[in-house]
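Why does this matter for the project? Reviewers at the last site visit asked to see concrete outputs rather than summary tables. In response, this paragraph embeds two records directly. Each consists of the residue sequence and, immediately after it, the corresponding structure tokens. Nothing has been edited or filtered.
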Amino acid sequence: MAKTVMVVDDSASVRQVVGLALRGAGYEVIEGIDGKDALGKLKGQKVHLIISDVNMPNMDGITFVQEVKKLPMYKFTPIIMLTTESQEGKKLQGQAAGAKAWVVKPFQPAQMLAAVSKLILP
């Protein structure tokens, strides 16, 4: 059975590029347009990994990670931040919230898939 990855980004083009790479590698993909939308879509589904942007309207990525980690079912779900932010301060905030990796845009799909395969839950 295919593993499910949630992609959260307010940019449709980023969701498309990431989604294509993931589907091409055999993953199922759920898309969220921001943290609030993504939280609503989690609803007890098995998600093996989450890839989230940092800067989004309604609920930013750091807040989203904090909210996900409060949910017992997703407490251990690995989260990769995919963002234009390369500042150390933001990275530390992301790690403190529970993010496992930080991929800076523009990214190479192969680099992102390598991070996904390393971190995804069995």
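We now turn to the second protein, recorded in exactly the same manner.
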Amino acid sequence: MKTRVSVLGLGRMGSALARTLIKAGHPSNVWNRSPDKAQPLAALGATVAANVREAIAASDIVIVNVTDYAASQVLLRDPKVAQTLRGKLIVELSSGTPREAREAARWTEGQGALYLDGAILATPDIIGSTAAMILVSGPLAAFTAHQETLATLGAVSHVGADPGTAAALEAVGLSQLWGGLFAALHAIAIADAEGIPFATLERQWKDGVPVIEGLVADLIKRTAGKRFAADAETLSTVGVHTHALRHLADISRIHNLDPGLTRTYAAHFERAVAAGHLEDDFAAMTQFTRIAPEAAPKAADGTRPSRHT
């Protein structure tokens, strides 16, 4: 018989996870704060739990997919619920920071349960397919023991024993995602203002992908080796990019586009140039993405992030 799994949280993603498990033949228990969201899954064969404690007690694996770690804590750290965790595998698929993931792992393991932290780099419609990339971090033994069940959800891979690794890589993915999407918004605005057909923009965007991928690969490689000075293999310098940015800023200003994006770029370049890196490889820019802790904005609790969080 296949492993029993409970899913806590039935938003679009949580429902997709539960639906996939049900279709794969896993006895599934589901719970959601709004019970009506569980009804479509009940029609597929899921058991709808009356409360969180009941859902956890019914299964060996508990998948949590709620808004964030704070919402997850509200569910799991209720004293009556915490008593049911011993011997279970908790798979946290809510969003949060690496620090929150590590703290959740410590607490969960303190209750006698196993803990894996995961990041879903996919949309609900592709869950269950090999296109759905899901990163998992935490004890390798826990992952290996339940890998077959977890693989039901998509292309699941273990990325490290540190519980915070998956959340960190999710942040990497979001940087990549929003970097591309906001760049596309800016490009669309320029094309529209200049009367360029969107079909032409689409072709140009696709044609530029190999060049950008090559630049990013070179940037990562150089940063890993701390090769910041320009050399015979340099593809572009800080100076070349700084000069090109002036043109982008000009055309943005002419068409009354939001200057926030180009100002952000300019601020990074200004710090690098002021430090004497005008003629260095673009990789030198990686030294200017951090700001001193004392200059960092305060968090909601009034604290400032450290270099180690």
